[in-house]
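Supplementary Note 2. Why include the ligand at all?

Several targets in our set were suspected to adopt different conformations when bound, so apo predictions alone were not considered sufficient. For every target with a known small-molecule partner we therefore ran a joint prediction. The input for 4'-deoxy-4'-aminopyridoxal-5'-phosphate is given below.
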Amino acid sequence: MKKHNFSAGPSILPQEVIEKSSEAILNFNNSGLSLLEVSHRGKDFIAVMENAKRLVKKIANLSDDYEVLFLQGGASLQFLIAPLNLLKETGKAVYIDTGSWSAAAIKEAKKVGNVEVIASSKEQNYNHIPKSYSLPKEADYLHITTNNTIYGTQFKDFPVTDYPLIADMSSDIFSKQIDFSKFGLIYAGAQKNLGPAGVTLVIIKKELLGKTNRNIPSYLDYQVHIDKESMFNTPPVFATYVTMLTLEWLDKKGGLGEIEKLNQEKAALLYSEIDRNSLFSGISAVEDRSLMNATFILKNEKLNATFKEMLKEAQISGLEGHRSIGGYRASIYNALPINSINILIEVMQLLEKKSS
Ligand code: PMP
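The joint prediction is reproduced in token form.
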């Protein structure tokens, strides 16, 4: 029996995507070859890459002003690549620090140039999204982390600037409808809502490139990847294929409008149980609660062992909180069925009954 997978990432993928991927490992497109042993220059894989890009543009409703890339190195490499490409030698990059992934992005940007952190919720252990800050008049870009995987907070509205807004959307990409045209650059490691680990989605507004005089190393230069259509070097063939299947799945489901409804429903069910159940309490500020990662604790620590045992019995996996904040984290990404949430809620209610 398949477990209820609440893992924060790599995380649950749609079952049909896993099945189709296994078929392709055995026999890719009836070619008599495994997907794992075909050339990335062959027509079958070129079609996969093109289809994946087309689906991203369709799902995000992107104009031709944007280019879609599939790269390696995870979101962590984007922490460095973004400033290398967009932060001018005499310019300034502005960051909002909403968690340790934002802090990691800030650390890399500081190696490239001048960085101003205009707001941070670090002092409160990143339990909310800062809202009162003033944006400088001029900057090369403003960087935000739209969803903070570890803490379970999420931007509900995006800051409005006269300069490009760039975002790490690793843990909430394609989970709800947003206006992607508000962003100059978006990046996301695939391993939550998009596919398996090993590929990173980058969406870049082309007009932002070529404005620095920096001599950017080839792999780190977005323009090089655009010119080579994400085939500058051997791309992660398998991860890109699974991402394409996941995008197809999302598109067939009705795209962002439909998945948002489902995600809202799933999150509402879980948060209302966290709030109702006398044993639990949520970690993050209610108004900033993430649709993707719900963080909570058991008020009475003595119940942790019993709860963990019950989770195991119910075949619930991956519910531990991140080691830096402890407690529990239910990652309820696009592919997690609502049934898994219901099972988790049953266990929470059973624990309440048992301990009353
Ligand atoms: N940003 C966010 C919001 C994340 O959750 C993570 C970790 N999954 C990262 C960046 C780092 O991603 P990667 O492991 O792909 O470098």
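The pocket of 4'-deoxy-4'-aminopyridoxal-5'-phosphate is lined by residues 9, 74-76, 101, 145, 149, 168, 170-171, 189 (CB under 6 Å). The longest strand covers residues 66-71. Comparable summaries for the other entries are listed in the accompanying table.
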